[in-house]
């Protein structure tokens, strides 16, 4: 992908509605690569995600509903935001039919919109490091627990389909201790904006 610049504002694809998420979580994860995620107009191209299915123990929903993960058990197309390690927020997109409790974790973006705002929020100039991790991107986009349970197709959140074909690669997920063998991490091959490179 081309290096990002201050004037880099790629055209936006069609708006992704909540129905887009009413499918197998792994299919949705793949199709989100290259889509544009915006929060109050700030964001970029999704270059890395992870899928989590309720049947595997790495998913927050594996042991059933709790006050924290309740939104995962609802209808698809909503945001699930949680605090990771008591430090930073992570944002997920709820997928599959109501009750499935499966979601896609957004791991990294290539900044394209509102880069100056992201730099102020992150106190960082390097565009490659602004959104290269799930906690980094939520800070850059201003995502907090206030965004939990919000619909993904209404302000302040907007998602747009990718406008070009990209080479999507898969690998094992990062930073988990259960179901580590599942190759449910997806990303853009060779992107410089990933949280961690994929094995070659």
From TrEMBL:
<keyword id="KW-0378">Hydrolase</keyword>
<comment type="similarity">
    <text>Belongs to the DNA glycosylase MPG family.</text>
</comment>
<keyword id="KW-0326">Glycosidase</keyword>
<dbReference type="InterPro" id="IPR003180">
    <property type="entry name" value="MPG"/>
</dbReference>
<dbReference type="Pfam" id="PF02245">
    <property type="entry name" value="Pur_DNA_glyco"/>
</dbReference>
<dbReference type="InterPro" id="IPR036995">
    <property type="entry name" value="MPG_sf"/>
</dbReference>
<keyword id="KW-0234">DNA repair</keyword>
<keyword id="KW-0227">DNA damage</keyword>
<dbReference type="InterPro" id="IPR011034">
    <property type="entry name" value="Formyl_transferase-like_C_sf"/>
</dbReference>
<dbReference type="GO" id="GO:0003905">
    <property type="term" value="F:alkylbase DNA N-glycosylase activity"/>
</dbReference>
<protein>
    <recommendedName>
        <fullName>Putative 3-methyladenine DNA glycosylase</fullName>
        <ecNumber>3.2.2.-</ecNumber>
    </recommendedName>
</protein>
């Amino acid at each position: 992908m081309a290096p990002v610049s201050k004037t880099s504002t790629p055209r936006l694809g069609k708006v992704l509605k909540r129905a887009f998420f009413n499918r197998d979580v792994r299919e949705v994860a793949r199709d989100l690569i290259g889509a544009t995620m915006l929060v109050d107009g700030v964001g970029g191209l999704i270059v890395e995600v992870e899928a989590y299915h309720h049947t595997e123990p790495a998913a927050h929903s594996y042991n059933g509903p709790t006050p924290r993960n309740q939104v995962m058990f609802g209808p698809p197309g909503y945001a699930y935001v949680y605090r990771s390690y008591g430090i930073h927020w992570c944002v997920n997109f709820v997928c599959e039919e109501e009750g499935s409790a499966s979601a896609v974790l957004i791991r990294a973006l290539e900044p394209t919109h509102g880069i100056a705002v992201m730099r102020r929020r992150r106190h960082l100039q390097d565009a490659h490091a602004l959104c290269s991790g799930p906690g980094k991107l939520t800070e850059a986009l201003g995502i907090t627990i206030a965004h939990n349970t919000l619909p993904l197709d209404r302000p302040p959140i907007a998602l747009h389909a990718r406008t070009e074909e990209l080479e999507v690669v898969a690998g094992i997920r990062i930073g988990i201790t259960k179901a580590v063998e599942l190759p449910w991490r997806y990303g853009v091959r060779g992107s410089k904006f990933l949280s961690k490179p994929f094995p070659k």
